[in-house]
TrEMBL record, chains A, B:
Domain Enoyl reductase (ER): 14-330
InterPro entries linked: ADH-like_C (IPR013149), ADH_N_2 (IPR041694), ER (IPR020843), GroES-like_sf (IPR011032), MDR_fam (IPR045010), NAD(P)-bd_dom_sf (IPR036291)
Taxonomic lineage: Bacteria, Pseudomonadati, Bacteroidota, Cytophagia, Cytophagales
MF terms (GO), sorted A to Z: oxidoreductase activity, acting on the CH-CH group of donors, NAD or NADP as acceptor
Domain of life (superkingdom): Bacteria
UniProt name for this protein: Enoyl reductase (ER) domain-containing protein
The keyword Oxidoreductase belongs to this UniProt entry's keyword annotation: yes
PANTHER family: PROSTAGLANDIN REDUCTASE, PROSTAGLANDIN REDUCTASE 1
Keywords (A to Z) from UniProt: Oxidoreductase
Species, as recorded: Pontibacter mucosus
Length: 337, 337
C-alpha cells in the first residue's frame, strides 16, 4: 500500500523553510499479532516542534535527520490484530507524520467521539488545553479580581488561558497580532481588553491603559519586546508563567534584551518556566474540568484546519508568521467507521 | 549638646560619591515625657540604601534631599523618660544617621547583650541573616545533595547563605571578587568550591567545573554577567532567589543583557525576587535558628568594622567596589553602661 511520510531533511538555521522537510513514499508493512493499522485523521502542528528540529540541548529529544517527524495525531484503527483496539476505534497518540502507521498500541489513548469533535482532542481537550489550565491555575494562581495578561492570546493555548481566567473572575487582557484576532478575543471570547502588538505605537502605554490596576498574572507564550512591555506594568507579588518564547525559537544567537531580573526583585515577582508533561498527575482532573466547561458552553474553541497531508509543513511554518487563530491542525483524511 | 548628622545632599547619577552626602551639626532637643535619648553605637551600611537615594519608584520610600539618611543602628539609651527603656538598655532600630537621637520608643527592639556581640544584631542576627535564611530556605528550598551557588558570597548575606546550605547537606559554591575572599570562604566557612569572578577567564566554564552536577539553587546578590554564567549551568527544576542586583543599582539606563526567560523555560526553572520585610511572620523562628547555630559555633561570622561617625559615607561607598568581607559596619561610639 502507498504511504506518504514526511522526514526531517535538514536542521533549520533560523526560521524553518519547506526545504527542511522531505516527502517520501514507503511500503506499509504487514500487520503482526497484537498490532493495529492506523489511518491518520488529524495532525497537530505546534511551535515546540521547532525546538525538536534542532539538535540543541533541550527538554525533548531532537528529531533525527532522515527520519519521520512526529507529534500529536488523531487516527482511526482501520485494521486490527488486537482486541484492545478494535477496527473503528479512534485513538490519540504521539505518532509519525505518515498517512498510515503500523503500531503496537502502547501509548495510544482511546477517544470517545461522543463528547466533542475528534479534532478537539488535539486542542482544548489535549495538550494545549492542559497547558493553559495548568500554567494558569498552578503557576499563575489568579484570584478573583486579578488582572491576567496573556500573550499569543489568539493561539491554541492563549484562547483557553483567557477564558479560564474569565471563569475565575479575573480581568483578562489579550495580546495578539491582528485586528481580526483581537476582535475575536473581545467579541467571541469575552476578553476585557486586547492589544494588537503590530499596530500599537507604545506597547508599555497600551498595556498600562488596558491594565489600570497593573498586571497580577502574565501567561507568556512569546517573549521578546511584547513581554518587556508587560514586565514594566507588573504589580508587587505578580506571577509569570513562561509557556513559550516563540520570539527566540528561530534565533541563531543567544537572545539579549531588557533584563527582567531587576524588575522581579523590585516587584517581588515570581517567574517560572514549565512544560505540561511534568504535570501528568494533574491531567485527569484538569481534563475533566475542561470537558465539563466545553460541554456547558463556557469555553469557546476555534480551530484553523488546513486540508491535505501534503500541507502539513506549510501549516507548521504558518505558526511562525501568526497565520492561525486558535489551534492549527491539518485534516489528513475522513473517518471511515 | 553637639550632634552630627548626615543628610542626603543630592541624588546620585550613577555611582554615589561623597558629594551626595552632607554633614551638619544640630542641637539635641530636650527630652519629653516618654522619650529616650539614644547614642548610636554601630551603624549598618547596606547596598539597598542606594535605591533609597534615588527617587525612582521602588519598594521602599526614597530618602529626602536635605534630610538625614536612615538605616539599621544599634544604640544605647543614655537618658530615659520612660520605664520601657531604662538607661543602659541597648536597642536596635531603623534610625537616622546621627550621633544622638531623641526617640519615642516605638519600633525599637531591645537587644540582649549576653547572646552575641552587639554588632551581630545588624548582621547575622539581623536583616542580613534573616535575608539569607528566608531567601535560601523559603525560595531556594535546597534538598540535601543539591548544588547551591551564591553570588556576592563574601558579603553579609552570602556568607550566611553558604553556611546554612552546608548545614542542610548541600554542595556550596561561592562567587566573590578577590582571592582573599575566596580563600576565606573555602578555608574558614567550608565552601566546597569558590570562583574569583575578577580573575576567571571563562565564568561559564568555571561554574561548570565547580558544579559538575549542575546548579539546583542560585542565591543571587549581584545580577549581570556573573548571573548569566550561572544561568547557563542551571539544572531542570532549579530555583533562583533574587536577593540583590548590585550590578544595576548604579546604572542610569534600563539594564540589558542575556535573556534569562528562554533558559527558565528550557529548564522548567523558577526565579523569584524577594524582600525580607515581606516575611515578618517567619522572623521569630528564623532568628531562633540563627542564634542557636551561632551559639553552637555552626555559623561563622565576619564583620568589617570601620571606626568613626565621619566614615559612614566612605564605608557605604566601599560596598560598590567590593571592599568588605562579611558585614560592613561603622562603629560610632563605645557603650557607656
Amino acid at each position: 500500500m502507498r504511504n506518504k511520510t514526511i522526514l526531517l531533511a535538514s536542521r533549520p538555521q533560523g526560521t524553518p523553510t519547506l526545504d527542511n522537510f522531505k516527502f517520501e513514499e514507503r511500503e506499509v508493512p504487514a500487520l503482526q499479532e497484537g498490532q493495529v493499522l492506523l489511518k491518520a485523521l488529524y495532525v497537530s502542528v505546534d511551535p515546540y516542534m521547532r525546538g525538536r528540529m534542532s539538535d540543541a540541548d533541550s527538554y525533548v529529544a531532537p528529531y533525527k535527520v532522515g527520519e519521520p517527524i512526529s507529534g500529536g495525531i488523531v487516527a482511526e484503527v482501520v485494521e486490527s490484530n488486537t482486541d484492545q483496539f478494535p477496527k473503528g476505534t479512534v485513538v490519540l497518540g504521539n505518532l509519525p507524520w505518515q498517512q498510515y502507521i503500523v503500531h503496537h498500541g502502547n501509548g495510544l489513548r482511546k477517544i470517545n467521539p461522543a463528547i466533542a469533535p475528534l479534532s478537539y482532542h488535539l486542542g482544548i481537550l489535549g495538550m494545549p488545553g492542559l497547558t493553559a489550565y495548568i500554567g494558569l491555575l498552578h503557576i499563575g494562581a489568579p484570584k478573583a479580581g486579578d488582572t491576567v495578561v496573556v500573550s499569543g492570546a489568539a493561539g491554541a493555548v492563549g484562547t483557553v488561558v483567557g477564558q479560564i481566567a474569565k471563569l475565575k473572575g479575573c480581568r483578562v487582557v489579550g495580546i495578539a497580532g491582528s485586528d481580526d484576532k483581537t476582535s475575536y478575543l473581545k467579541q467571541e471570547l469575552g476578553f476585557d481588553a486586547t492589544i494588537n502588538y503590530k499596530t500599537a505605537t507604545d506597547l508599555k502605554a497600551a498595556i498600562k491603559e488596558a491594565c489600570p490596576d497593573g498586571v497580577d498574572v502574565y501567561f507568556d507564550n512569546v517573549g521578546g519586546e511584547i513581554s518587556d512591555a508587560v514586565y514594566l506594568n507588573l504589580n508587587n507579588f505578580s506571577r509569570i508563567a513562561i509557556c513559550g518564547q516563540i520570539a527566540y525559537y528561530n534565533s541563531t544567537s543567544v537572545p539579549t534584551g531588557m533584563r527582567v531580573e531587576p524588575i522581579l526583585l523590585k516587584r517581588k515577582a515570581m517567574m517560572k518556566g514549565f512544560i505540561v508533561s511534568d504535570y501528568a498527575a494533574d491531567f485527569e482532573s484538569a481534563a475533566e474540568d475542561l470537558a465539563k466547561w466545553v460541554q456547558e458552553g463556557k469555553l469557546q474553541y476555534q480551530e484553523t484546519i488546513m486540508e491535505g497531508f501534503d500541507n502539513i509543513p506549510t501549516a507548521f511554518l504558518g505558526l511562525f508568521s501568526g497565520q492561525n487563530t486558535g489551534k492549527q491542525l491539518v485534516k489528513v483524511a475522513a473517518r471511515e467507521g
